[in-house]
Design a protein that fits this description.
The protein is mainly alpha-helical. It is built from 13 helices and four strands.
């Protein structure tokens, strides 16, 4: 099997970290809902139906602030988080992006001749993708400029429904609140005690708890949509940062779709995978410019890893020729800070620089 650049551990770490952080962010708010329910219970332990509307309204406000402040998840710069959920997204998206770039950089540092690597480190930070292409496109064999045209940093990317990340978080908060509202209203109308409603609320809201047994339209798990959104955003960031870093690494010409070891059942990933759950080769790597759409479904757990070219010496010879001619070096993962600025976007990059210790403490 051709040499692969290690990096498949970062995605499961990020997904687990997000799940635990999401649960931790919801727990104190669920406890506040519990306190609210008990404060509004009568001597019989039940909540008077005349107080239903006020209790449900206040409980919804408590839960929704996990996701947004008012109607916004981010400040005007689009990257400074205003809610615990937005902070979680920032933390784990920047973590996975930094890891993708640094894995490539570390391989290059170990494997590329020192003189060539020092030259590549000196690549200046481009102002945008177009400027990066003007330098890089002349030097990297097979480089396809159009492959970068569809990329936008996380906070600027618009999904097929026309929503940016802040909009998607707001809609997730509204959906979560609506589900909790419906569940609480039904429980109060049915005359259940505040103690029982509190237990159901905790079961309903906290990820990892056994889902409620119900056929009601509000579902069995209010936090599910928030889990799907977070995990999908993290996986998308992993995909783009790994693919674009690979395309900018002149020593990489292939990408593997690595089937997740926690793959629960057969789906489209089984047809797309080039490496199996046990690390066995299923088929040849994809060319870096023909990799399938990733993630292929919500809550994707499969990984992407870069595959090193068999013609590494030829790549070195070509790069050294440019270097000896005095040309400006192309942007590659060797200049990791500049590449991260490009991938994250200026605002999220600055947030990451201010919060590096928190992001790195995975």
């Amino acid at each position: 099997m051709r040499q692969a650049i290690p990096g498949t551990r970062a995605l499961p770490i990020a997904q687990k970290g997000f799940r635990e952080g999401y649960k931790a962010a919801l727990r104190p708010e669920v406890e506040r809902v519990t306190l609210l329910l008990h404060q509004n219970a009568g001597l019989d332990g039940k909540i008077d139906r005349r107080r239903e509307s006020a209790v449900v309204e206040r409980a919804g406000e408590i839960i929704q602030r996990v996701y947004v402040a008012g109607r916004r998840a981010y400040a005007e710069d689009g990257a400074t988080p205003l809610s615990p959920y937005a902070s979680l997204i920032n933390r784990w998206v920047t973590y996975i992006t930094v890891k993708a770039v640094q894995n490539q950089r570390n391989w290059m540092k170990r494997s590329v001749p020192e003189d060539v690597y020092r030259w590549l480190i000196g690549a200046r930070r481009p102002q945008n993708v177009r400027e990066m292409i003007s330098v890089t496109g002349r030097m990297l064999p097979g480089f396809v400029p159009d492959a970068f045209a569809q990329y936008d940093p996380l906070h600027l990317w618009v999904d097929p429904n026309g929503y940016r990340l802040s909009d998607r978080i707001w809609r997730t908060g509204v959906d979560t609140r609506a589900r909790l509202d419906a569940m609480l209203a039904e429980q109060i109308r049915n005359g259940n005690s505040a103690i029982n409603i509190s237990k159901k609320s905790e079961q309903f809201m906290l990820p990892g708890r056994a889902a409620l047994r119900t056929t009601k339209p509000y579902g069995t798990d209010a936090s599910y949509r928030g889990m799907v959104l977070g995990r999908t955003e993290i996986t998308r960031a992993h995909g783009w940062s790994t693919i674009l870093s690979a395309r900018l690494n002149p020593y990489v010409d292939g990408l593997d779709w690595v089937l997740s070891a926690s793959h629960p059942k057969m789906d489209v990933c089984d047809q797309l995978a080039t490496v199996g759950m046990g690390g066995e080769r299923l088929k040849d790597p994809y060319d870096v410019y023909s990799f399938p759409s990733y993630p292929s479904h919500p809550q994707e757990m499969c990984n992407i890893q870069s595959v090193v070219t068999a013609d590494a010496q030829q790549v070195t010879d070509e790069l050294r020729q440019y270097m000896e001619q005095g040309d400006e070096p192309p942007l590659t993962p060797a200049a990791d800070d500049s590449l991260l600025w490009l991938l994250l976007g200026a605002a999220l990059y600055e947030w990451w620089r201010r919060n590096q210790e928190t992001v790195a403490a995975a």
